[in-house]
């Protein structure tokens, strides 16, 4: 089986807040500049003069669009440069002003939902210029609007205040007049920057009629080229060139001007100024577009909630979450349907949740599952209709197995072990025939579990918890209710009262040829158990709750914890469970998927010492070390995610584990594992046999006991990297296709 290529032909691009395609008129203008108007605007010959004319006429148009009949309007390389220039200008003026520099309290205020370019620039230049001011985030309300009272309370001590006109993740539009009043009523001198990147073309701007000191813009967010931006600077605002040199832009920004970039802005600005222009839709039309998209999304994904308040947002941004789905899963689904959207903020990649939605106080799951869908004002009705059709197709692919159970391909019917995740919480599903056991359900997964049970026609035998979770509530009771299970005779962890003894001499449930036995493992909590999955008397895997975590041991600083008991439980468990058998914890903070005693003993010195046959560590010594560890890990009160005793960082693959397609030939009989989900295969019309999405990789290992090299691949190389790292940590020879099938053409 070879690595399949995606069909990338008819892409639907709904990620305009990250960047937009270049408008055909702008492409034409750029081409003309490169072929005909290539002069240097500083040259005094005719070629240079023509170039200068193009530059100055574009600046004039920009002044009209931005409402800037005064102040400077400088061409920059983009908004990040504009932001630096504003911050350096403001802070270097403050540095020279002893009255301001020596104030008893000096604040640099910025909106809590600002693009990272803003707080990071403030922090950087505050340190470098020795201003030594305190950086303070202005809180926002649940709509993402800035707290005006907070601004009023702190403005008197503020040296600079940075706010944004429109947020890039939610489209939330700030009331600039109200912010101006809050600042100026307290501090007319304070320097005020407004990041207008996402506002251009989406709301009217009248900069010179305001007291905004600095306003950065970026061309690539509105159909111009990348590498071109603008900075407005008010006449009264201090200015210090960020780039010094040949004195271009009247000495305000040196370096030969980016004429192709400037040329690409011109048709955009002309279109914005011409109400009859066919290119950009009216505000009313954009609002109607949003309504159509929102209705389609709601209809296609019943569990969908919007994270942004349409009443205070520009119409071109929709931010949503679907209960039970991580944003990465949805992103992969949309990408497989050739719809480009983004998860949380594209600019803060790596983050698993959105700091913007966190600042708005949205529930953790909404922040973890956030998807941003954004379009530009040049969107057409035909493009919108196509996007809506494709969204329905994506949703249908997700429901595929439910709507057509008789058409299920073997890999679509659930069997064996399935790992579902909500953030760092793991829930497991064990399926044999038409029976299922659910282990450690959490609330955000309830809807998904209910749907899965019904569409796969599964009968739920038991819903079990590995312990009474100290940091979150089990969703077992809700799930039982939703599934209409009314079994009365259950213990608090969901275990049937009359479970018989099984082959491991422990109470057990039978699932076809498998058994699930219950073993007490007190320590993290008093009631903790491990669930041992066995075929005959061979234990294949153990659901260990928080007793053993990837790279850690469950915390023992809860009321019902006992570090001494944990020591005995670990030793008893390690005696029963083979060193290579899979351990499946209740949390997975670093996407390691599974572990084993062997892997943990390599990675966790405390566990290694506790289990060592030669070491002399006793329960008391273990408890002392564990207690010290717990103290070092103390979590802030109210933290939504308690990392139960895990300190491990991310795992990195060795360069030789990252393969190009050409490298595949060097392996003799590897297992090629496609880790994409089955709905992605459906959307891409693939029929891969060797498919094991991350959620079923554990079962793949149980099914393939040989030691052949494992080569994982997926769409972009991100999930395959996770899989290879997890497998490699387990001690397997694991590799992945770098860049995924997206780059394998
Ligand atoms: N500010 C906001 C609100 C943005 O959305 C972005 C880009 O995502 C930037 C600043 C940075 O812009 P640039 O890419 O032009 O540096």
From TrEMBL:
It holds the Pfam family Lactamase_B. Residues 666-745 form the Rhodanese domain. Its cofactor is pyridoxal 5'-phosphate. GO terms for molecular function: cysteine desulfurase activity; iron-sulfur cluster binding; metal ion binding; transaminase activity. InterPro entries: Aminotrans_V_dom (IPR000192), Aminotrans_V_PyrdxlP_BS (IPR020578), Metallo-B-lactamas (IPR001279), PyrdxlP-dep_Trfase (IPR015424), PyrdxlP-dep_Trfase_major (IPR015421), PyrdxlP-dep_Trfase_small (IPR015422), Rhodanese-like_dom (IPR001763), Rhodanese-like_dom_sf (IPR036873). Its EC number is 2.8.1.7. The keyword DNA damage does not apply. Gene3D superfamilies: 1.10.260.50, Aspartate Aminotransferase, domain 1, Rhodanese-like domain, Ribonuclease Z/Hydroxyacylglutathione hydrolase-like, Type I PLP-dependent aspartate aminotransferase-like (Major domain). Keywords: Aminotransferase, Iron, Iron-sulfur, Metal-binding, Pyridoxal phosphate, Transferase. It catalyses: (sulfur carrier)-H + L-cysteine = (sulfur carrier)-SH + L-alanine. It is an enzyme of class 2 (transferase). It comes from the Bacteria. Belongs to the class-V pyridoxal-phosphate-dependent aminotransferase family. NifS/IscS subfamily. PANTHER family: CYSTEINE DESULFURASE (PTHR11601:SF34), CYSTEINE DESULFURYLASE FAMILY MEMBER (PTHR11601). This is cysteine desulfurase. The lineage of its organism: Bacteria, Pseudomonadati, Pseudomonadota, Gammaproteobacteria, Enterobacterales.
């Amino acid at each position: 089986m070879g690595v399949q290529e995606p069909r990338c032909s008819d892409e639907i691009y709904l990620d305009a807040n990250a960047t937009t395609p270049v408008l055909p008129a702008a492409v034409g203008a750029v081409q003309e500049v490169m072929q005909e108007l290539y002069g240097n605007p500083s040259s005094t010959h005719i070629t240079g003069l023509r170039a200068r004319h193009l530059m100055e006429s574009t600046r004039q148009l920009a002044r009209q669009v931005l409402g800037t009949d005064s102040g400077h309007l400088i061409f920059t390389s983009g908004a990040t440069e504009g932001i630096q220039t504003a911050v350096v200008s403001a802070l270097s003026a403050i540095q020279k002003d002893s009255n301001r520099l020596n104030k008893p309290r000096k604040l640099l205020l910025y909106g809590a939902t600002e693009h990272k370019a803003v707080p990071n620039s403030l922090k950087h230049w505050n340190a470098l210029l020795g201003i030594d001011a305190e950086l303070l985030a202005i809180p926002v309300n649940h709509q993402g609007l800035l707290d005006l009272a907070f601004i009023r309370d702190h403005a008197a001590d503020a040296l600079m205040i940075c706010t944004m006109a429109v947020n890039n993740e939610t489209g939330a539009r700030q009331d600039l007049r109200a912010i101006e009043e809050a600042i100026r009523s307290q501090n007319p001198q304070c320097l005020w920057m407004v990041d207008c990147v996402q506002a251009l073309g989406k709301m009217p701007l009248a900069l010179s009629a305001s007291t905004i000191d600095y306003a950065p813009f970026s061309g690539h967010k509105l159909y111009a080229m990348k590498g071109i931006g603008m900075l407005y600077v008010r006449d009264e605002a201090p200015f210090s060139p960020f780039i010094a040199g040949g004195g271009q832009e009247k000495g305000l920004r040196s370096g030969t001007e980016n004429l192709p970039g400037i040329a690409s802005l011109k048709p955009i600005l002309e279109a914005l100024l011409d109400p009859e222009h066919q290119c950009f839709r009216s505000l009313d039309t954009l609002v109607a577009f949003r309504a159509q998209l929102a209705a389609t999304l709601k209809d296609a994904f019943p569990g969908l909630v919007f994270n942004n308040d349409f009443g205070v947002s520009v119409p071109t941004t929709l931010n949503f979450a679907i209960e039970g789905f991580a944003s990465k899963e949805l992103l992969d689904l949309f990408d497989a349907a050739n719809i480009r959207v983004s998860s949380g903020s594209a600019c803060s990649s790596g983050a698993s949740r959105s700091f913007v939605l966190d600042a708005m106080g949205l529930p953790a799951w909404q922040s973890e599952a956030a998807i941003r869908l954004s379009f530009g004002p040049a969107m057409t009705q035909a493009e919108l209709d196509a996007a809506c059709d494709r969204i329905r197709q994506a949703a249908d692919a997700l429901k595929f197995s439910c709507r057509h159970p008789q058409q299920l391909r073997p890999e679509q019917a659930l069997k064996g072990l399935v790992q579902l995740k909500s953030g760092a919480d793991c829930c497991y599903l064990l399926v044999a025939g038409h029976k299922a056991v659910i282990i450690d359900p959490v609330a955000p997964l309830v809807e998904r579990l209910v749907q899965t049970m019904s569409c796969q026609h599964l009968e739920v035998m038991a819903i079990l918890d590995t312990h009474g979770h100290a940091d979150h509530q089990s969703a077992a009771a809700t799930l039982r209710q939703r599934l209409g299970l009314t079994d009365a005779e259950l213990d608090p962890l969901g275990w049937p009262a009359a479970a018989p003894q099984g082959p491991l001499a422990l109470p057990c449930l039978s699932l076809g040829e498998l058994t699930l036995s219950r073993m007490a493992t007190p320590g993290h909590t008093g009631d903790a158990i491990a669930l041992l999955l066995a075929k005959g008397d061979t234990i294949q895997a153990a659901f260990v709750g928080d007793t053993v975590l990837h790279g850690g041991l469950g915390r023992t600083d809860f009321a019902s914890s006992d570090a001494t008991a944990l020591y005995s439980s670990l030793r008893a468990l390690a005696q029963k469970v083979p060193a290579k058998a899979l351990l499946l914890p209740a949390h997975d903070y670093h996407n390691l998927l599974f572990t084993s005693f062997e892997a943990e003993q390599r990675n966790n010195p405390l566990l290694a010492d506790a289990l060592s046959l030669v070491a002399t560590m006793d329960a008391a010594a273990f408890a002392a070390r564990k207690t010290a560890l717990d103290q070092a890990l103390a979590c802030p009160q109210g933290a939504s995610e308690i990392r139960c005793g895990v300190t491990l960082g991310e795992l990195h693959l060795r360069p030789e584990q990252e393969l190009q397609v050409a490298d595949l030939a060097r392996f003799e009989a590897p297992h090629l594992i496609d880790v994409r989900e089955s709905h992605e295969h459906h959307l891409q019309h693939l029929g891969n046999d060797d498919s094991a999405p991350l959620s079923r990789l554990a079962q793949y290992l149980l099914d393939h006991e040989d030691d052949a090299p494992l080569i994982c691949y997926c769409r972009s190389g991100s999930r395959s990297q996770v899989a290879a790292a997890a497998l490699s940590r387990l001690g397997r020879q694991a590799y992945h296709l770098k860049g995924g099938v997206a780059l394998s053409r």
